């Protein structure tokens, strides 16, 4: 784990309130799925973000949703190339054992910016057999969906009938029961994680096959 200042390379707006923050990587090393604390210099205030970039990328990338009245995200959105942010990390156990990638399928189930570690997984593990079920409010919140192979990303939007599925991720799972043999990673709000966990257990999927991370 290390702490240091990193210059901003750029900010890519994905929606009115969500953006990708791109930073110089320097000598940072991390495992796919790990988190970093990101904050403005000399403020002693930071927030936790999972890596959105792969372990191979030359830059660090984070998926950030602007929180109205927040102490960090609105300030990050205003940064310009060349500005500095403080990066502390990496840490966390929401990772994949590389030995499990061959011969196993993975289901990644998340809501909102909780998709960030899944984007990192897909970009970091070549040949990964995966399916992403991503819950949002609107279809335009299906961030960078073209980064995923055809048929492996399902957007479940509660307020948009143009999405792949109109409804919650829980409703999708009940309508499309997933396999018992897969390994499941859940990331997002606590209520969703609890509800999805219960659905998976009712399908006789072992708790040892379910890995969770509460994002908000």
Explain this structure to me?
By secondary structure, this protein is α/β, with parallel strands linked by helices. It has two domains: 2-91, Beta Barrel (Elongation Factor Tu (Ef-tu), domain 3), CATH 2.40.30.10; 98-214, Nucleotide-binding domain of ferredoxin-NADP reductase (FNR) module (Rossmann fold), CATH 3.40.50.80. Helices cover 16% and strands 36% of the residues. It contains four helices and twelve strands. The strands form two sheets. Strands 4-3-6-1-2-5 form a six-stranded antiparallel β-sheet. A six-stranded parallel β-sheet has the order 10-9-8-7-11-12, sandwiched between helices. Strand 1 (2-13) and strand 2 form a beta hairpin. Helix 3 packs parallel to helix 4. The protein is globular, with a radius of gyration of 17 Å. The two termini are 23 Å apart.
Strands of the widest sheet, in order across it, are 4-3-6-1-2-5
- Extended strand count: 12
Order of helices and strands: EEEEEHEEHEEEHEHE
Annotation field: number of helices: 4
Shape: globular
Q: Largest sheet, described in full?
A: 6 strands, antiparallel
Indicate the low-confidence ranges by residue numbers: none
Strand content: 35-45%
- Oligomer description: single chain
C-alpha-based Rg, rounded = 17 Å
Residues in helix, %: 10-25%
Which CATH-level-2 architecture of the largest domain? 3-Layer(aba) Sandwich
Report how far the terminal alpha carbons are from each other: 23 Å
Mean pLDDT: 96
Q: According to CATH, what is the topology of the largest domain?
A: Rossmann fold
Number of domains: 2
């Amino acid at each position: 784990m290390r702490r240091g200042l990193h210059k901003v390379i750029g900010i890519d707006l994905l929606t009115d309130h969500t953006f990708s923050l791109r930073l110089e990587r320097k000598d940072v090393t991390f495992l796919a799925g790990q988190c970093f604390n990101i904050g403005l210099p000399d403020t002693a205030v930071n927030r936790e973000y999972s890596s959105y970039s792969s372990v191979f990328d030359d830059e660090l990338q984070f998926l950030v949703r602007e929180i109205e009245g927040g102490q960090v995200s609105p300030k990050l959105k205003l940064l310009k190339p060349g500005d500095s942010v403080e990066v502390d990390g990496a840490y966390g156990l929401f990772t994949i054992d590389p030995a499990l990638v061959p011969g196993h399928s993975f289901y990644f189930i998340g809501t909102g910016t909780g998709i960030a570690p899944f984007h990192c997984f897909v970009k970091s593990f070549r040949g990964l057999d995966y399916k992403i079920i991503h819950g949002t409010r609107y279809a335009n919140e299906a961030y960078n969906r073209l980064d995923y192979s055809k048929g492996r990303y399902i957007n479940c939007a509660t307020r948009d009938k143009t999405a792949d599925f109109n409804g919650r991720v829980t409703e999708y799972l009940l309508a499309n029961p997933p396999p018992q043999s897969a390994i499941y990673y859940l990331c997002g709000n606590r209520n969703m994680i609890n509800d999805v966990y219960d659905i998976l257990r009712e399908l006789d999927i072992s708790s040892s096959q379910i890995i969770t991370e509460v994002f908000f």
